[in-house]
Records
---
Amino acid sequence: MVFGLLLVCASESAAAPGASQRAAEQLPAADGLYERWDPRRSWGTPHLINALEEVSQRVAFELPGADPLMIGDISRQGGGWLRGHITHTKGVDVDVGMFMHDARQPLGGFLDLRPSQLDVHANWVLVTSLLDTDSVQYMLLDQGHINALTRYAREEVGLDQDEIDTIFPPNPTHRHWRQAGVVRHAPNHLSHLHVRFKPPEVYDPVQEAKVPSTSPRSAVLGQRPQQH
Ligand SMILES: [Zn+2]
């Protein structure tokens, strides 16, 4: 019923920046912290792998009793085209399953969820754990889910509107590549977060200096989805 839904990122924009270090490290098995949909499609930059491990540990600490994170596709070893995706070519993209009620993950993989089915607190912990790595360039999620998280941030966490706007772009449109907030709407993202990490050259500009690339900001603003 569900694993076909992993291959739903065709609407995401292409052309991840950065070229070396791509998909050089495999996310190792980690019972209790996360499940990998397919280890052969679980290769990322070292920075992405480290950040994912950090996030999974924090989520497990803050949500005792929660199901392990569900990690969908990252990239193939060494990168390159990955069936079912436009992105996921350079080890800087990962799909992470959303939590259902009681911090459960749907049995068998990703499953489209209604906003009313979300464990909003658990997903808030997931999103903020990702943001706190300071490694995330942007995340894509359905607007209905974003609305649920925004409401939670305002009413339960006590964030003011300016703080909320730094995470979730105001006046959302489907043109997510033009928006400034970190968590943006994209269609076909009712089951999972698509997380784009910053490219390797952000962390290692000397080693990456010979790699032609655009800045993270111009890369985000300049790219256009091939499908919508
Ligand atoms: Zn994705």
---
Amino acid sequence: MTDTRENDPNKFNDTPNIDAPAIDMPITDPVPEPFAVKFASRVERLPPYMFGRINNLLYQKRRAGDDVIDMGMGNPSDPPEQVVIDKLMTAATDPTNHGYSKSNGIANLRREVTKKYERKYGVTLDPEHEVISCLGSKEGFSHMCLALMGPGDTAMIPSPYFPVHMYGVILASGNVVSLDVADPDLFLRNVAYTCEHMAPRPKILIVNYPHNPSSAVIEPDFFVEVVRLAKRYGFLVIHDFAYADVAFDGYKPPSFLSAKGAKDVGVEFTTMSKGYNMAGWRVGFCAGNADMIRGLGTIKGYYDYGMFQAIQIAAIVALRDTEEAVEKQSLIYQGRRDALVSGLRRLGWTVNPPKAGMFVWAEIPEPWKSAMSTMDFAMKLLEEGNVAVSPGSGFGQGGEGFLRMSLVENEQRLRQAVRQISKCLSSPPAIVKA
Ligand SMILES: Cc1ncc(COP(=O)(O)O)c(C=O)c1O
């Protein structure tokens, strides 16, 4: 290549003059900014954890040796059936069970899920395309949100809400419209109204019956109407059926999938955490619409390698052989419900006994309700009464004025909790809340 500036007298004039004063040179090294981790905006959008104050105090009290009666989390305290534990142990000694498993779950486990659906709800499912295993239903639910939602998409959710119903959508960059869950007919009317008036229309309806935290329940007709509305307005349905196996007084929680046409529009999540006492095992399922299941499978294929195979094998035994124990466990919760509800009623509280689920949803009595926030009331019960409960406000504004009391302690301790609550509330407050 020829140098076109060969005879140019200014050819070297753009060479820096090293003798010139270094006007812009810093005299000392700059003070480094303190090192900080900046989270993604999706994390910045999350509110402070509402149960943090309660959990911190609970932890401190336990460390100090206080005997706190814990009605906070819905974390079952009874063990799974011995045959299930035995199967886990033998499966764990088999060297072939320790590699990566299939992210959508082994075929025999998915087949066992379809058998339970057939037996319990008369629902026929294809185990290959219409069922997927999850690392607990919460994992499956959040990844389903990631598969379906994005910026500009809206989900209708119940109010008050189980936190992942709100934040699974938010983490997937979606928006949320929350609808009062207490009256099922009103809830459905609000779904129709929202679809009529919102543009673009909501993409998803999230439902959860028996409901956490409010314990609201529905009858099968509810899901017939949900399917009709879904087809009319073109939204998808996710039913969180976590409390499918915990019901009282002969009430049978209906499966969304037993409504005609449900598989055309949605899916249902179930779990072994509650009825089977296997919360720490992390076994859940999603069943229904094959396209939605495929979408969840795609996300899961990138994020996880499935559940430890020994757990899956033991879960098959639990589903196949321990149905009776699941029914007995419901009776245990029913006895605890009766002990707690009758105790609270004796204190003058207005409480409806739940027909299903693991919680009593109790309105805070006056004058306390008008005198302080739900959070402060829950903190008072813990601080002065050694009783931990979940303040309803932890489940959104719709839960203000209520407490969620879980039924994981035994009857005797629940009665003791009522006595401690009574003592703690013996001097009513002057009403001061703004
Ligand atoms: C309504 C609801 N959905 C899902 C879950 C999570 O269940 P899993 O243990 O299967 O993730 C819970 C647990 O408390 C729940 O209450």
---
Amino acid sequence: MKTLCILSAFALVGTCATTKYTTKIQNIKDGIQIVDSTLVVNYLKTITSQELKKELYEFSSDTYEGRETGEKGQKLAAQFLKDYYIKENIASPFGEAMYYQIIPESFFSNNIKASENVLAYIEGSEKPNELIIISAHLDHLGKDDIGNIYHGADDNGSGTVAIMEIAQAFNQAKKEGHGPKRSILFLHLTGEEIGTRGSLYYIQNPAFPLENTIANLNIDMIGRVDNIHVNNKNYVYLIGADRLSQELHYLSEKVNNAFCHINLDYRYNAENDENHYYFRSDHYNFASQGIPVIFYFNGEHKDYHKITDTPDKIDYQLLENRTRLIFATAWQLANQSHTLLVDKKNELLLN
Ligand SMILES: [Zn+2]
């Protein structure tokens, strides 16, 4: 009888604690109100598979020689991005035509030459000091021993052209009087394939204070389908969203339910995931600074890090929808009334 009593008491405490946490989570969910639905739908439509395809065929062409960090092809890729932002009339955070953050040779090892991150920027209309960073690496593996080019169409041409289209959509909105309330940095990173060096350099030399950087949405490979999803290709892996901010996780889900209806696959977000993707691309450098991140990823496939990662194998419809999801998530982060909260400062979780 006594034993049973103790067990019941434990059971009660357990139930009680669980209910309380559930309520906290519900309060976080309820606190997220989707903003500007009509506008978001309008500008989502400016992100098209045709434009993504056109840019990606160029960016992964032979001209850029596999975009190896510090080499001629990578520099041409950086120039291509800079020219794009000039043509689109999207500013640099460093002032006129200064789109490069130059990383000196001394920052690298193994005789890697100086290289550059490419930065473009739209200043927020109401809270310009608060910043959302949308990032993707621009570099890839260069050429193999006999001169074959690693085109890296998926890795990470797909993420690169996604950012170009997202920047264009935000800029179009701004021109029509609907610019983001918070600032957005479009950050094309170099040196990812040699150990996320471009993002490491950025966090050590940030263009804007890291304490005002409220989130990082990082894109690395979103144009293909992996073996797990051959029969269910309307998916994308999301990694990291709930690690630092429960609000970011639920905000991302709400945005997806409102606009994109993609199956968000969280299997690689598991703490015990043996692939350790959370630690393997540029977003982790931001997470290490306490900045909430979402990593968007289609998983590995047979052409991953092979010379056969070419633009004809990209599913442009999928790339379009995934890009739209990232745009809509960034819109919500930039325009919702309250600033995204990290868990350790979120009173809805603490009380
Ligand atoms: Zn990559």
---
Amino acid sequence: MSTGTIGLRNGAEMSRCNAMLCRLRRLINRLRGYDYARGEVLMPSARRIKMFRDNLTVGPRVLDMGTGSGVLAKLALEKGAAEVVAADVNPAAVEAARQTVPGARVVLSNLFEKIEGRFDTIIFAAPWSEGTIARPFHHAIFEDGVTGRFLKDARGHLTETGRVWVQYSDASAANFSLFLGWIKEHGYAIQREWTLKDWDLFERKKATICLYKLAPGNVK
Ligand SMILES: C[S@@+](CC[C@H](N)C(=O)[O-])C[C@H]1O[C@@H](n2cnc3c(N)ncnc32)[C@H](O)[C@@H]1O
């Protein structure tokens, strides 16, 4: 057997091993309940979604901004929404959400660019880490001011009694303080707040994940 063949065989074995390791890592993360990536799409942690499952209330028309895998759009339908629109800037997420939740209208949109009309409930599980967006998946992780832009534009898409639900984390202290500033700057009142301590897979540390129910203006 020539050295070239051995090299090729070792190469193939190495990539099989790598693929197995990747699958194993994904499985361990899933068992631990962490957020993790499948291709370019963020797969949500069970604990993070449980926060929404336990607390989210929806009106008839719901927008799930940054739908990712579509998990929250699906939850909104389960909770009785009559109509769910789901949006994401990442084409792979749009594809995944269409599979997860055929009952929703899934739109490729940079925030509200392609979104029309008003909603009783607008949800955004926002990205919260510091970093540069270099590939589609990074939109799920790195905050580039997107939550501030979201909060600004969401006001124009709420019905009179509409509410915004945002999930964020203090994993990056700098971003968390910006986030709290945006809530004030764009004139929202915090109606309810829930927190949980969780391991942040990407920051590699424990952080507090928060879920906020926001009302526009000074509504209490
Ligand atoms: C933290 S992930 C949440 C995904 C999913 N909603 C969940 O809870 O698992 C944030 C999502 O927002 C999307 N996103 C980020 N920036 C966006 C933008 N400008 N317009 C639309 N979606 C955006 C990302 O692609 C990602 O799917």
